[in-house]
What does this fold into?
Amino acid sequence: MHVPKLSASVAAVLVACVVPMSGAAPTSGASGASASSPSSFSATESRIFDLINAQRRSQGLRPLAHNPQLDQMAKIQAANMARFQKMAHDIPDASLPTLGDRARYVGYRYSRISENVALGYPNAEAVVNGWMTSTGHRRNILDGGVVETGIGIARSASGGVYYCQVFGHQLSPL
It folds into this structure.
């Protein structure tokens, strides 16, 4: 785990996760994806979306499209982390404890899926910078095998700000 120092009084924490292709989840239907910042994003989520895509473009990669299912997954995990005040990919006490559980719940049938989480960053620029300076997070962001994303942010009762970004590539229809 990488813990960058932002200032003398603020610390932020990051964790990256990748689920192997064999974890494909059953689907309940097709999803729609949007290449522009969706209206369902908060201003900070929209800024993260734009900054991540700028990072991808700077490396010659196509920008990620917004996917509502991945967005729902990210929002579920951000809320779980805030509720349990635990930054993690797996939260055993949550009703949807793993990334695979969340994918099945929203019906996202994937060939590739990964997740970045973070805690304590003051804004979009800081969290994206933190992710980009961490090897695992950077790998998830610049993975040419993912084509869409969703973002969630939640604040805990004690004020901690939890971030989650899910990256994916859906299985081709049978």
